[in-house]
Amino acid sequence: MDRIVVHTEPPRSLLRFLTCGSVDDGKSTLIGRLLYDSRLIMEDTLNSLAKDSRKHGTVGEDIDLALLVDGLEAERQQGITIDVAYRFFGTPKRNFIVADTPGHEQYTRNMATGASNCELAIILADARKGVLTQTRRHTYICSLLGIRHVVLAVNKIDLVDFSEQTFDRIVGDWLTFASSLGFQTMVPIPLSARFGDNATQRSGNTPWYLGPTLIDHLEKVDVEGDTAAKPFRFPVQWVNRPHQDFRGFSGTVASGRVTLGDAVVVAASGRQSRVVRILGPDGDISGAAAGEAVTICLADEIDIARGDMLVPPTARPQVADQFAGHLLWMDEEAMLPGRQYMMRIGNLWTTASVTSIRHRVNVNTLEHQAARRLELNEIGVCNIEVKKPVPLDPYAENRTTGAFILVDRFSNRTAGAGMVDFVLRRATNIHHEDYPVDKLARATLDHQKPLVLWFTGLSGSGKSTIAKLIEQRLHRRGRHTYTLDGDNLRQGLNRDLGFTDADRVENIRRVGEVAKLFTDAGLIVLCSFISPFQAERQMVRDMFEPGEFVEIFVDTPIDECIRRDRKGLYAKARSGVIQNFTGITSPYEPPEQPDFHLRTAGTTAEELAEVVLRGVLPLIEG
Amino acid sequence: MTNAVPSRLAPHLRQLEAESISIIREVTASFRTPVLLYSIGKDSSVVLHLAMKAFAPGKPPFPLLHIATGWDFRAMLEFRDRRIAELGYDLIVHTNPDGLAQGINPLTHGSQVHMSVMGTEALKQALDSHGFDAAIGGARRDEEKSRAKERVFSHRAPGHVWEPRGQRPELWGLYNTRIALRETMRVFPLSNWTEFDVWDYIAAENIPIVPLYYAAPRPIVRRSGMLIMRDDERMPLDPGEQVETMWVRFRTMGDWPLTAAHESRAETIDQVVAEIRVARVSERSGRLIDNDQDASMERKKREGYF
């Protein structure tokens, strides 16, 4: 029955790769070169290309290969690539789908979109400029999205006289940065997209380069990975029930393989059954592997709907309603913790919210920063809470069952793309143990009501000075107090924390927890911390009972703080020695409704301490 | 492999087939009233073939829609009716009644007006009158430069408007299928296929296609350097023009006055595939409507063209 097969070439596989780089790096020219040299450019396209080259081109009389790929009218006129474009070409050995993505920082989302479906990335660098901030950004985003094979295309090598030293220096810079990002293959290639050196033909201009040409590498690189060796995952896409005698579960095998007779369970419910029939695109088959679209029939009538996942009983995914993950924000409207979004994970739609942002990742420096929200194109590590438990795997283990999107509930825009890091085993299984001697008992013995006095304000505003005065006066009145001081805590409990904004957030969280223990012990706790963000102050306030937390805003104008500068910190911050310094390079959000608003200008610390004392004594003495 | 029957397909075609089947199933799972836009061309034939596979042993759970302009090749209509009768599927045929009443045609009104009224407008009428919320089409990204950025699930605002800025990023296979009232989705399961892939697949899977894709002696008029097949008497001959019988075939389907043939002796699918492999012009060069103006496809898409 076999008909004559037309393609006599050996079977070809499909490689999806993305190209990232800015327009100046020659990305579009490189893709144009690959298309041109693989003879996929038709005559009528060439004619219109020649016409376009005269109209929009940037290379004089030559045909501008970049114009082959720059699609939408707007970007052709502006000369930039503003979206993900998909290109197709093939060689006798392999077929290629190219995700052509823009390189500017404001298009991080487009790059991530392209990367999400790719197995390999070509990162372009201009040989004249070397490894730039953006080269690092592209490399990082590729690794974040799970790409394990990268090519560093050192382009325009002709413009540095095909210099081996230049190439080696750039490669060295890049490897220093990229080696720790978990890539399986990292291949640097010196090339000229415009003239074709080492793109599709070995160049006589780089006799010192012994590696493959770009196309050689693309044809040969093994990206199959081990998705077929991983545990079986089958997200049910659709229940096929054409008539009473047939009930099958359609979907695409996400990983692993399934064979007739295999035992499977529904991940969320734990219901078990056995595979009795598998339908592939051409009818009955005895097994199916990752990537195949099939319909599976089970021996038992168990409750299964779209969104469920069939898995082996011996290698189940975690089922969780709280997890930590990387989140890339893609919407103009910022992501706010606590806000509800629609979430799609696998084939399941549910609602989810970010409970907290652990930190934001600066995509240029990889520095961790504190954040209260994620803006467009920002990446954060977040704790995420899902309305009901969902089956999931860490993204590093499974790019299908560990990926999710967040969708705005009102506009339906795709707002965020996420990757599961790990499941959070939160307090759900830990139950609070009650002790008979409680806070009230201890406070009664001390004849005082416990209280937190939280001083917030710029560095040098006078928080500590005022706090010390208050503590002295309370002490003289026989009150049991304790002061939590940032510098002191950092020598012990918090000595693992640095001064990044992310660490500052953790610093505040721990201070809040310690203050809570001390109030539980019956003490009056004085805390003086810059605590620049409303969110963290609110977080601490929420730990306490109403009336137990007093926020004191020590309000000194920044100019006055700079003038005082007792520790010389402002001078360092302004000269760039200290980064992310509140008031200089990092924002301070003044409290909107502090319990005490102390304007320090034109008054003394003693007077202000007196004001606070008069106000809090009734709370303490009840 | 554990497959009982070894697949006849090359690995990359198997990958594309699986992806397309998944997309088609996603439409059924996510929309209330989907429809398959059946243009009778080779790409539509492949989509239909994939839909049959996606829902086996059942039938595709959506109807087919053909927008008839009144200028379809007769051979296309015959093929359509025969195919639908064989398969027993639901087919809706719609023609713009206003355009018909006004006698809109490609010969006197030009390709732009004709396609806008009888193609784009007619499609919107049909989608609106049946309340279809998702329409599956056979467009591919490799067809034309402005298609290269088209989404698999392409969002349309009320009025079927395609807004470049309103298109949603598509990560992994996690398509965002949510739409508000009066919004619709166009879905393109063949997004990642090339023309070569389509032909290789048709050959490997033995998919029936309109005979016009195969070379045969046909009545041809040479006009503006194009070979136009005179399918009926409505096309008057200009002075000096004559109908000659030539061995030709078509690389794309469309309205016959707007679709150029080329000389060919490729009578079998294998010969057609061999011819495509060495072709030096793109398939759209035979479509008169695309050559009208620079970036014409992008404009048409914004207006709601499929």
Explain briefly what this protein structure is.
The complex is a heterodimer of chains A (622) and B (306). By secondary structure, chain A is α/β, with parallel strands linked by helices.
Name the descriptors.
heterodimer; A: 622 residues; alpha/beta; Rossmann fold; Elongation Factor Tu (Ef-tu), domain 3; 4 domains; six-stranded mixed β-sheet; 28 strands; 28% strand; B: 306 residues; four-stranded antiparallel β-barrel; 8 helices
Question: Taking strands numbered 1, 2, ... along the chain, how are they ordered across the largest sheet of chain B?
Answer: 3-2-1-4-6-5
Q: Which geometry of chain A do the CA atoms define?
A: flat
Largest inter-chain interface? A-B, 81 and 69 residues
Number of strands of chain A: 28
CATH H-level homologous superfamily name of the largest domain in chain A = P-loop containing nucleotide triphosphate hydrolases
Structural class of chain A: alpha/beta
Which CATH C-level class of the largest domain in chain A is it? Alpha Beta
**Segments of chain B where pLDDT lies below 50 for 5+ residues?**
1-6
From the N-terminal CA to the C-terminal CA of chain B, the straight-line distance is 39 Å
Mean pLDDT of chain A: 87
Mind summarizing the main beta sheet of chain A?
Answer: 8 strands, antiparallel
Low-confidence segments of chain A? 1-10
User: Terminal Cα separation of chain A, in Å?
Assistant: 94 Å
Structural class of chain B: alpha/beta
Quantity of strands of chain B, as a count: 10
Strand content of chain B: 5-15%
Based on CA atoms alone, the radius of gyration of chain A comes out at: 31 Å
Count of helix runs of chain A: 15
Q: Which band does the percent of strand residues of chain A land in?
A: 25-35%
Structure annotation, total helices of chain B: 8
